């Protein structure tokens, strides 16, 4: 059980870090857009400045994602193409898993009057966040597994 909670903690921490970095970049980019080109982005706020409550919310979201992904842990960490499984799972959760219509989600595409460019920007930001997450998380997990093998 301790191994599971350590994994959830690492997953959540990396999720919070990657969200925070992408949020800062995305919000800086968003502010450079004209007011007309960012109406839905301002209204729906797909990314928020990483304050205490946002970090807490993202830590919780990362923990939930970690629990969803945990049954596939060995396939993801040990398989050469595990990154692809993780990308499909995390990006799919972001794109298909939202139950509210926000830019960058399938619900948002169907039910909002958000422009395609606004959806595209959020989808790309989500994909970059997931790639960044995968790089950091899998590097950490593979390094940890290698250290465990050496010490055992």
Ordered list of secondary-structure elements with their pairings:
Elements: H1 2-32, H2 39-44, H3 52-69, H4 73-78, H5 82-96, H6 106-111, H7 116-151
How would you describe the overall organization of this protein?
The radius of gyration is 17 Å and the shape is elongated. The protein has 152 residues and is mainly α. The protein has helices at 2-32, 39-44, 52-69, 73-78, 82-96, 106-111, 116-151. The longest helix is centred in the C-terminal third of the chain and has 36 residues, at 116-151. It has one domain. The two termini are 20 Å apart. The protein is built from seven helices and no strands.
Keywords:
152 residues; mainly alpha; 78% helix; elongated
In short:
This protein has 152 residues and is an all-alpha fold. It has 7 helices and no strands.
The backbone outline, from C-alpha atoms, is elongated
The largest sheet, given as strand count, sense and whether it forms a barrel, is: none
Instruction: Provide the gyration radius in Å.
Output: 17 Å
- Structural class, from secondary structure content? mainly alpha
Give the number of helices: 7
How much helicity do the residues have? over 70%
Oligomer: single chain
The poorly predicted ranges are: none
Strand content of the residues, in percent? under 5%
| Helix and strand element order | HHHHHHH
Q: How far is the N terminus from the C terminus? A: 20 Å
Q: What's the number of structural domains?
A: 1
Find the count of extended strands (DSSP E, 2+ residues).
0
Q: Average pLDDT value? A: 88
């Amino acid at each position: 059980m301790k191994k599971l909670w350590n994994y959830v903690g690492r997953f959540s921490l990396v999720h919070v870090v990657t969200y925070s970095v992408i949020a800062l970049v995305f919000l800086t980019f968003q502010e450079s857009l004209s007011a007309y080109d960012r109406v839905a982005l301002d209204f729906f706020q797909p990314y928020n400045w990483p304050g205490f409550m946002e970090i807490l919310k993202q830590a919780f979201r990362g923990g939930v994602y970690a629990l969803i992904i945990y049954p596939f842990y060995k396939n993801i960490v040990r398989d050469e193409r595990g990154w692809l499984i993780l990308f499909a799972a995390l990006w799919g959760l972001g794109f298909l898993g939202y139950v509210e219509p926000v830019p960058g989600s399938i619900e948002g595409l169907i039910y909002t009057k958000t422009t395609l460019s606004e959806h595209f920007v959020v989808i790309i930001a989500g994909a970059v966040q997931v790639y960044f997450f995968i790089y950091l998380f899998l590097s950490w997990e593979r390094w940890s597994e290698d250290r465990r093998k050496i010490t055992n």
